[in-house]
Design a protein that fits this description.
Layout: E1 3-10, H1 14-25, E2 31-33, E3 47-48, E4 58-59, H2 60-73, E5 77-79, E6 83-87, E7 93-97, E8 102-110, E9 114-116, H3 122-126, E10 132-133, H4 136-139, E11 148-151, H5 155-165, E12 171-174, H6 184-192, E13 196-199, E14 202-208, E15 215-220, E16 226-229, E17 233-236, E18 240-242
């Protein structure tokens, strides 16, 4: 028999926990499913400096723990499970968890966040977790004392490169344009860090290595010149893709999801 719920929240990042606080205070008895990555992207973020109330900054995981405690304080039922399927065709929204548990919800709040985008190279897929990563905070420790490359030109790439510069003797930042899209403050940090070398108009052509990364072949998209960078780690930081696949048959979405 299906479980009846007034308000179901899918996702446990800042949006999910904020929704939980408001729903709980409105006596909607919210149930929040965390998904496979409780806490969302902030769990792999080091210093959060642009959120009001933390004048000295705060570590991402600690911030999410604070959010969770506040949601729980008002009575949110937090469940550590993944929502696998939905059916929004009727007046009551039907949802199924990964274990097959069926839920009928009057209201559903979607706060599923996003996952890292990848370049789509065969070598990238083959060497993922063998030197290829989308999370410097998670995996940077393994590359202490080694040269690494970061691909991307936004805030995420700048943050990854800056973080890795504290662990690695040299960080190659591969930017496909002739400028960074990162915020001014992050650009300044990159340019002021002596062991970050920015390669403009540069894209990754192939990640080298059989069982682990031994280098990356890059190409200048203006001149066509190719060269190999002797790196042991390759970090992809080119943005994120919304985690909305299970809703695509029921919600209107743009090309990005």
């Amino acid at each position: 028999m299906a479980e009846a719920i007034k308000c179901l929240i899918i996702g446990s990042g800042p949006a999910g926990y904020t929704a939980a606080v408001y729903a709980a205070r409105a006596n909607l008895d919210p149930v929040l499913y965390t998904g496979k990555e409780p806490g969302g992207q902030l769990m792999i973020t080091t210093d959060v400096e642009n959120y009001p109330g933390y004048p000295e900054g705060i570590m991402g995981p600690q911030m999410m723990e604070d959010f969770k405690k506040q949601a729980e304080r008002f009575g949110t039922d937090i469940r550590y499970e993944l929502i696998e399927k939905v059916d929004f065709t009727g007046p009551v929204h039907k949802i199924w968890t990964e274990t097959g548990h069926e839920i009928h919800a009057n209201a559903v709040i979607i706060a599923t966040g996003a996952s890292a985008k990848w370049l789509g190279l065969e070598s990238e897929k083959r060497l993922t977790n063998q030197g290829v990563s989308a999370c410097a905070v998670c995996d940077g420790f393994f590359f202490r004392g080694k040269e690494v490359a970061v691909v991307g030109g936004g805030d995420t790439a700048a943050e990854e490169a800056t973080y890795l510069s504290k662990l690695c003797p040299k960080v190659h930042l591969l930017v496909r344009r002739d400028e960074l899209r990162a915020s001014k403050i992050m650009q300044e940090r990159v340019f002021k860090t002596p062991n970050i070398e920015v390669h403009w108009n540069t894209q990754a052509d192939e990640i080298l290595g059989e069982s682990e990364v031994t280098g990356v072949r890059v190409v200048n998209n203006q001149t066509g010149e190719k060269k190999v960078l002797d790196v042991k780690g390759f970090f992809v930081a080119i943005g994120h893709q919304p985690n909305t696949n299970i809703f695509q048959d029921y919600l209107t979405m743009d090309a990005s999801g």
